[in-house]
Amino acid sequence: MTTRRDPDRLIRAFLLEGEDVLTDSVYDAVRAEIDQTSQRAGFGPWRTPTMSKIVPIGLGVAAVVFALFAGAQLFGTPTGGFGGPPDSSATPAASASPEPSVERSATPEAIEPYQVVVSEPDDPVQVSFTVTSPGWMDLPGLGGLTKNDDGLDPPDTEGIAVLAWSWPAGTGFHVYGHPCQWSSTIPETPATTWREILAGFEAQAETEILGGGGPPPFAHGIDGVRLGLQVPLAYEVPGATREEEFSACDESIYAFYGIEGGTEPERNAQGPGQIDELWILDVDGRTVILDVAYGPATPAELIDEAKALVESATFEVP
Amino acid sequence: MDTDLVTRAQRGDEEAFASLAVAAGDRLHAVAHRILRDLDLADDATQQALLAIWRDLPQLRDPARFEGWAYRILVRACYAERRRERAWSPNLRLLPALDPHGADASQSIVARDQIERGFRRLSLEHRAVIVLHYYLDLPLAGVAETLGIPVGTARSRLHYAVRALRAALDADARTAVEVMVR
């Protein structure tokens, strides 16, 4: 082989040619656009919060439309697993003065209860939680609270997050046929009711549903279901990044569901072993999903606290 | 890369991000240009990549891995630009040779012409592997990590891409080599 025909040398020489300087106009355009572009919440590392939306109880959350779940039986005990229907005999709670009713194996330090609106201002349903234990922080831009944010993802994190997301009536959900091959397993017909969403999760490959789903009504006429999902631990690669662990998945993302018309998944997993306990609800025709997300290392007492938050939820339809 | 800048930008510091963009912009653009072989597309891809980097930066767990993560976003942006620009001109535009030091400069130009033709026949996935490996000097494991693909896939793509370029260099090659896409 002659020098001229040495492919490696020729390829390297060929690649040395080309423009190496990015023009100022591109930098200017980027700077102009980032002013208008919000950063995505880094739900991977549980984020440093602000407390901007916290409203002390008693300041008047007068427009609460729906008083919601109450009773420890509604969500079960932390060690008793989850999934299955909420108990329809649960006693409704007054929205402005909820009293946590979950018995905890380790009672956290008592604080003066306060109510926090966790939804974003434009959300179709405004969800509030009543916080009765210390350490819960806002997840800015994400619609939720977190506690014990240790900067780690499942399965390593000991933290937990409680998300409260809502969508307008008639929103179509794409519950992917396979969370890893989500982009090629989008169902032909989007789910528009909690029953259809539940059916989607039940049919979703690989997703382990912890406990059975069930369709009994919630108190006060709010229908819904609760179920738990777990990302298989088989994806775990010690020391790897989330993207590396999910590198075999579409766009290195492991995703549970998306929204019709959206180009990206709505909810993707932060890591193998992640558990998401979902409460999928119909609130006056709008879909609300309360999502308690944690890892296998999250202490049971913390999971119990998070469920107490969900129990305290109140909903306002603007 | 200055991890402090990355960390500050992750927290929404626009000035820190601007510094980060200036530090990384030329290199990102150079890679985009080499993958796409078109300056306008490379500008657009780099711009989109920088915006995606800003948007997704809080989701980067390890600031020390910023560079590889940014290249992955850039390659995706290149794929997206190529999809948007289906009216890609097949005409060759020879770039000035920077290394015509061979005994026969015209032969060098011919060889580069051949390799350019061969390169343009490659899929973007194969081009990306070639650029990351030969231009950024990333080992195969680094190429695989950057692209988020298994090492075996990176090796396979490199193998087929080099084979295709070798065929393009063959003066007797009259037909294009179809490159298998994995």
List the helices and strands and how they pair.
The complex is a heterodimer of chains A (318) and B (182).
Chain A: H1 7-16, H2 24-34, E1 54-56, E2 114-117, E3 126-131, E4 137-138, E5 144-147, E6 160-167, E7 173-175, H3 194-203, E8 208-210, E9 223-230, H4 242-245, E10 255-259, E11 265-268, E12 275-283, E13 286-294, H5 300-311, E14 314-316
Antiparallel strand pairs in A: 1-2, 2-3, 3-14, 4-5, 5-6, 6-13, 7-10, 8-9, 9-12, 10-11, 12-13
Chain B: H1 3-10, H2 14-36, H3 39-56, H4 66-84, H5 105-121, H6 124-135, H7 140-147, H8 151-169
Describe this structure in words.
The complex is a heterodimer of chains A (318) and B (182). Chain A is 15% helix and 22% strand. Chain A is α+β, with helices and mostly antiparallel strands. Chain A has a domain at 114-316. Residues 43-106 of chain A have low confidence and may be disordered. Chain B folds into 2 domains: 1-87, RNA polymerase sigma factor, region 2, helix turn helix motif (Rna Polymerase Sigma Factor, Chain: A, Orthogonal Bundle); 99-182, Arc Repressor Mutant, subunit A (Orthogonal Bundle). Chain B has helices at residues 3-10, 14-36, 39-56, 66-84, 105-121, 124-135, 140-147, 151-169. Chain B is built from 8 helices and no strands. Chain B is elongated and about 50 Å long. By secondary structure, chain B is mainly α.
Number of strands of chain B: 0
Helical stretch tally of chain A:
5
Distance between the termini of chain B: 32 Å
CATH class of the largest domain in chain B: Mainly Alpha
Class from helix and strand fractions of chain A: alpha+beta
* Oligomer classification: heterodimer
Structural class of chain B: mainly alpha
What is the H-and-E element order of chain A?
Answer: HHEEEEEEEHEEHEEEEHE
User: Order of strands side by side in the largest beta sheet of chain A?
Assistant: 4-5-6-13-12-9-8
Measured as a percent range, the helix fraction of chain B is 55-70%
Termini separation of chain A: 76 Å
Strand portion of chain B, in percent? Answer: under 5%
